[in-house]
Specification:
Structural class: alpha/beta
Order of helices and strands: EHEEHHHEHEHEHEEHEHEHEHEHEHHH
CATH architecture of the largest domain: 3-Layer(aba) Sandwich
Number of strands: 13
CATH class of the largest domain: Alpha Beta
Number of helices: 15
Number of domains: 2
CATH topology of the largest domain: Rossmann fold
Radius of gyration: 22 Å
Strand order of the largest sheet: 3-2-1-4-5-6-7
Largest sheet: 7 strands, parallel
CATH superfamily of the largest domain: Glycogen Phosphorylase B
C-alpha cells in the first residue's frame, strides 16, 4: 500500500499534533507500507514551536517532500505580530492592539478555513507529481490547518484514491474562534466547507468521542466512516515500570495556561493545602508557555520560592519531567463546550502512571477518561475544598514511600491509547477500504 500524508505540521515543528502523525507514519513504515509526506519547508513556515529532536525520529524509509508556501501569516509575523504568530491562530494575545484586532477579524471572516490555505497550491502541485509518478492508494490530510483537507478534495476530482481526513482539532466551532469577531455568515460558510469535505472523504478520524459524534450528528450519512483516533502516547517513551521516588512532593503542569483556563480555584486550594500542612516539602514545575496571568497566580499565592519554570522543552525531556513528578495537573480552557475539549497530554499523563488532578467541567471527556483508567480525579473550578482534600490525601500517601506511581488494576484501560495500538486499527481500516475499492 502506498500512503501519502499531507500535513503542514511535521518535524522540525513541535507539538502533540506533530508527534501523533510522526508516530502513525513510523508504524505504517514498520509494516512495509510505502510512506510519503508532503509538508512545508521550515524556512517559510509559521510554526508555533520548534523541536529539532523530532527530526531524529523520522525513518529514512519515509519520503519527505518540503514545499514553498504563499501564506499570509508571514505578513502578520513581520508587521503586526512582533516576529511571531500566536499558537491559536492570532487568538492568544491577552491585550490585542487595534491592528491585532483587525487581523483577528480578517482571519475569522475572510480567510476561511484559515490563513494557511496559501500553502494549498504548493501541496497540490507536489501531490499531483507524486500521484502521476508513483501512484497512491491512500491520501491522508491532517488538520488543522483545516485548509489542508481542500487539497485532497480537489485531487479527488481527478484521481482515484482513498481519502482519509484526520480532524485532530475542531474546525468551524473550535473554542478560540469567538475571539475573531466572527459573523454568522462567515461561520455558516466555514461549516459548509467542512461538511463538503466530510461528504467527500472515504474515512474520517477525530481526536475524541465527542467530536466524532458531532460530525455524525451534522452529517448522518457519515456514520460508519467516522471514528475517534486520540492523540495517544508513544509506547517507546514509557517502557519499563520502574518506580521513581521524589524527595519533594512535585506537581507538574505541561503546556500553556492563559486566563481562558481560569484555574485560580486550584491555586487557592493549593495554598490552603500548603498552609494546612505547614509548608511541606513541595515544588510546582511548569514546562511550556507561561502567560502573564499564570505568573501572577504564582506570585499572588506566594509560590515563587517553590516554582520552577522549565520553559519550552524538547519532547523527550518533557516525558522525563513527567516521570520525575509526583502529581500531574491538567486543565481545560473554560468555554461553554469545554466538555468536548481533550488535551493531547492527558494520554502521556496516564502513561507516566502518576495521579492526575484535572480541572474541567463535570461529565467532560477528560472526566470519562480518568474514571475509565482510574487515573486521578476531575474537579470543577469552584470545588476548592474537594481539591484541597484530594491534595492532602495524595500527600499523605506520598509521605509513606515518596512515590505515587500507579499500579493500574486494568492496564488495558490506558494502553489502548498507545499510538501503535491505534495505528494498527487505522491500517486495518485502510486495508479494508482499499480491498473494497479493488
Amino acid at each position: 500500500m502506498k500512503i501519502l500524508l499531507i500535513n503542514y505540521y511535521w518535524p522540525p515543528c513541535g507539538g502533540p499534533a506533530v508527534q501523533r502523525w510522526l508516530n502513525i507514519m513510523r508504524y505504517f513504515s514498520s509494516k512495509d507500507m510505502a510512506c510519503s509526506v508532503i509538508t512545508i519547508d521550515e524556512k517559510v513556515a509559521t510554526f508555533p514551536s520548534i523541536d529539532l529532536s523530532l527530526l531524529e525520529s523520522v525513518p529514512e524509509s519515509i519520503n519527505v517532500y518540503r514545499t514553498d508556501s504563499s501564506e499570509l501569516f508571514n505578513v502578520y509575523k513581520k508587521y503586526i505580530g512582533k516576529g511571531k504568530v500566536p499558537s491559536n491562530g492570532l487568538g492568544d494575545e491577552p491585550n490585542p492592539t487595534f491592528m491585532q484586532k483587525v487581523a483577528r477579524f480578517v482571519r475569522g471572516n475572510l480567510f476561511l478555513p484559515d490563513p494557511r490555505k496559501g500553502w494549498n497550491k504548493h501541496a497540490y502541485k507536489q501531490a499531483e507529481e507524486i500521484i502521476l509518478k508513483e501512484g497512491i492508494d491512500v491520501i491522508v490530510t491532517a488538520g488543522p490547518p483545516h485548509s489542508t483537507h481542500l487539497v485532497a478534495k480537489q485531487l479527488k476530482k481527478k484521481y482515484d484514491f482513498i481519502w482519509h481526513m484526520d480532524l485532530h482539532d475542531y474546525w468551524y466551532d473550535v473554542w478560540y474562534l469567538n475571539r475573531f469577531y466572527r459573523t454568522k455568515l462567515a461561520a455558516s460558510f466555514d461549516k459548509k466547507i467542512m461538511m463538503k469535505c466530510v461528504a467527500a472523504a472515504d474515512s474520517i478520524t477525530t481526536d475524541c468521542k465527542h467530536y466524532a459524534q458531532d460530525v455524525i450528528n451534522e452529517n448522518p450519512a457519515s456514520k460508519g466512516k467516522v471514528h475517534p483516533h486520540t492523540m495517544g502516547y508513544n509506547e517507546e517513551l514509557f517502557l519499563g515500570k520502574g518506580t521513581r521516588t521524589q524527595d519533594k512532593f512535585i506537581i507538574t503542569y505541561i503546556g500553556t495556561i492563559t486566563e481562558d483556563y481560569n484555574i485560580k480555584g486550584f491555586f487557592s486550594a493549593l495554598r490552603s493545602f500548603l498552609d494546612e500542612e505547614n509548608n511541606p516539602l513541595f515544588e510546582f514545575r511548569f514546562a511550556g508557555s507561561a502567560s502573564p496571568y499564570f505568573t501572577r497566580l504564582i506570585n499572588d499565592y506566594g509560590l515563587n520560592d517553590q516554582f520552577v519554570n522549565q520553559g519550552y522543552m524538547k519532547h523527550k525531556d518533557v516525558i522525563e519531567l513527567l516521570k520525575q513528578s509526583t502529581v500531574l495537573l491538567l486543565a481545560n480552557p473554560q468555554t461553554v463546550d469545554e466538555v468536548r475539549i481533550v488535551p493531547g497530554k492527558i494520554y502521556e499523563y496516564l502513561a507516566a502512571r502518576k495521579p492526575i488532578i484535572s480541572i474541567s467541567a463535570h461529565d467532560s471527556e477528560n472526566e470519562w477518561i480518568l474514571n475509565e483508567c482510574d487515573g486521578g480525579k476531575n474537579f470543577e473550578r469552584n470545588e476548592e475544598e474537594e481539591i484541597m482534600n484530594y491534595l492532602t490525601q495524595l500527600y499523605k500517601q506520598w509521605q509513606d514511600n515518596k512515590s505515587l506511581d500507579y499500579a493500574y488494576s486494568d492496564e488495558a484501560a490506558y494502553k489502548k491509547y498507545g499510538r501503535d495500538v491505534e495505528s494498527q486499527q487505522l491500517l486495518e481500516r485502510f486495508n479494508k477500504l482499499t480491498k473494497a475499492k479493488s
